[in-house]
Amino acid sequence: MRYPAPMRLLSTLCVLWLACATPAPFPVDPRPPTAPLVRDLCIRYAADRGALGRFYDLAGAPERDERLRRFHDESRAALERVDFDALSVDDRIDWLLLNNRIDADAHRLAFERARALEYAPLVPFAGRIVALHRELRTQNFVEPEREAGDLEDLKREIEASRTAAEAHPTVCSPVVARRAARYLDELNETLGEWYRFRADYDPLFTWWARKPREAAGKALEDYTRYVRETIAGDKQDDTSGRIVGDPIGREELEHELRLAWIPYSPEELIEIADREMRWCTERMIESARALGLGDDWKAALERVKRAHVAPGEQPALVRDLALSAIEFLKQHDLVTVPPLCEETWRMSMLSADAQRTAPFFLGGEEIQVAFPTASMTHAEKLMSMRGNNRHFAHATVFHELIPGHGLQQYYQSRWNTHRGQFSTPFWTEGWALYWEMLLWDRGFHATPEDRIGALFWRMHRCARIRFSLGFHLGTLTPEQCVDYLVDAVGHEQKNAEAEVRRSVTGGYGPLYQCAYMIGGLQIRALHRELVGSKQLTDRAFHDAILEGNNIPIEMVRARLMNTRLEQDAVTTWRFYDL
Prior knowledge:
The chain is mainly alpha-helical and 578 residues long. It has helices spanning 5-21, 37-55, 62-80, 89-119, 126-138, 144-167, 174-198, 203-231, 250-259, 266-290, 297-305, 314-331, 339-344, 378-387, 390-394, 397-400, 405-412, 425-441, 448-473, 478-489, 493-505, 512-530, 538-548, 553-560, and strands at residues 346-349, 366-369. It starts with a helix and ends in an 18-residue tail after the last helix.
C-alpha cells in the first residue's frame, strides 16, 4: 500500500526524530551481526546436550561416556568452522562462551569418571545393571528366562561385594563411600525402571523375573544401607547434626575459577573477602556508636535481632519492604521495572523442614519466606525469628525480588534466552549483592538498625568466600566453618549450621557461595568505569546488563564496552586492586 505524500513525509520525520532522540543504551557494533549462526549453534548445543543427557542418563555406562566425548568433539568442530574474524562483538562473546561451555562439560565428564574410579571397588557388579539399562534404551530385550538368570547372578555378585567390603572396610574413605552410596541409589532406581517397563505387560517376563528382581533389589538395598551407614558413617538415626561434604581440592578449584572468568587465585579471593570484612566491621562499629553502644557492634546486632514482628505478621512486612524498594528504584531512575514484572511477583512460606537448609529468604518471581512454624521447637522458633528480623529483611527482600532475582528472571526469560546455558552465579548472585551495595551507597538504609541489618548480610557474604574456599581447599572443616560464621558474623548457631550444610551438601557448585561478593564487586567496578565516567546512565547500565542475560561479568564488560575479543581470549580483568 502506498501512502499519500503528506503521510509519507510525516512517517519519515517520525523515524528521523526517533533515531535522533533515542540514545543507544550502550555502544553498538556498527557492522551487521552474523547471527543467527553462532546463536543457533548455542541453541542446538543446549538442546542436543539435553537430549543426550536424558537418553544416556546412567553414569558409569561406557557408551554414555563415549557418546558424550564424541558430541563434544563434533560441537568443537562445528564451532571452529565459524569465521571468528567476521563476527560482531555479541557473536564473539557467544562463540567464546560456547567454547568455554564445551570445555567445561568435557572436563566435568572426565572429573566424574575419575571420581567414579575411586569408588569402583565398592560396585564391581554395576556393569550388569548398566547392561539392563542399555536393553531398556535400545528396546533390545533377551528371553525372560535368561533375564531371570542374570538377576540371580546380580544378587550373588552384590552379596559377594558385601562380603568383600566387610573384610576390607577401609577400601574406600568415608567421603568416597558417600559417592558410592549415591551411585548405588541410582543403580537401584535404574533396576526398578527396567523391571517396571515390562512387568505385567509381558506375562512371561513377569512370571520369570518377579522373584529374582525382588531378591536382587533387596540385596542391593541392604548393601547400599551398609555402605552408607557403616563405611560412610551416615546413620539414619544420627541426631548429632554433623555436616558432611565432599571438597574438590585446589587443582579443581583453580580450574573452576578459570572457567568462570575469574583471574584470581583462591588465596587472593580470600584476601579480598578479608578486606571487605574489615570495611564492614568498621561500619558496624559506627552504627553501634550511633545507638549509644560504643564499639560493641555485637551488642548492637543483638538489639537488632530482637526487633522481629509477631507470628503471622511476616508476610505483611515482606510485602511492604518489596513495595518500598520498587518505589525507591523508580524515584531514582535506577533500572527499568516492567509493569508485568511488578504485577506478578508472589510470596510463599518455607516449611520447617526446608528451613533446615534455607533458614532465610529464597527468591525470584516468587519470594519464599522463612519464619517459625507451629511444628518447630520453642528454641527453633526464637532462632528463626531472630534470624529473620525487620532489619535483616530490609536488606534481603529487594535482593530476592526487585531489583534482584525477580527482575533477573523476568529479563532472562525474554532477552538473549540462548545464553541460559552459560549462566554463572557471579552474574546471578553478584547482581543481587551489587544492589545491596548500590542501595547502601544511595542511602536506602536510613537508620542505624537498618544499616546493621545490611552490614550483617554483607559480612555474611564475605564470610562465605573464606569458609567455602577454605572447605574446598581442605583447610577448614564444616565444624570450623560453622564456628567462623558464629564468631565473625554473629550468626545464630542453628542458622550457621543450616548455612554451612546448604553450602557443602546442598548441590551448589564449589564457587557458588564465593560468587555473591565477588560478582557484586565485579559489577560495582564496571559501574565505576561506565557510569562513574558518565558514559552511561544508571538505568542504561543496569538495563544493558539484564538484556545481555546471564554471562560471566568479564563478558558483560566486553559487551558494554564494545570490546572485540580475540579467539584465544582468556580471563584477564583484575577488577579489584590488591
